[in-house]
Amino acid sequence: MAQTDLSGVCVYPHYQVLTINTVANEIVLPDSCDQIEIENWHSSADLYVGQNNQTDDATWDTGYYFVIPAKQAKAILLSRGGARAKSIYVAASVNTIPVHIELVNK
User: Fold this and answer.
1) What is the pLDDT of residues 40-93, one digit of tens each?
2) Domain 4-104 belongs in CATH node 2.60.120.10
3) Where are the domains of the chain?
4) Are 63 and 53 within 8 A, CB to CB?
């Protein structure tokens, strides 16, 4: 899957549905986003989420991630300033799965 660029989002909340495969799928985040919720409700497979040591469309680096189990969601608060990540990466544990994204500005 090609990179999903959401950097231009400026109205919140913002919702996006992606079909994710087993390689690293980069989601570029808008600067004004404070929180991202990643939902894995519609799959029987686990979803991997990571930031460090991942590259868009590359093999998933299994040493650096956490898991959102099937039928679960995870809200991630984003920091501000220079320490804030510009993107986050997701990958399906098997095949492809639909992933729902919610961007929030609190």
Assistant:
1) 999 999 999 998 889 999 999 888 789 999 999 999 999 888 888 899 999 999
2) yes
3) 4-104
4) yes
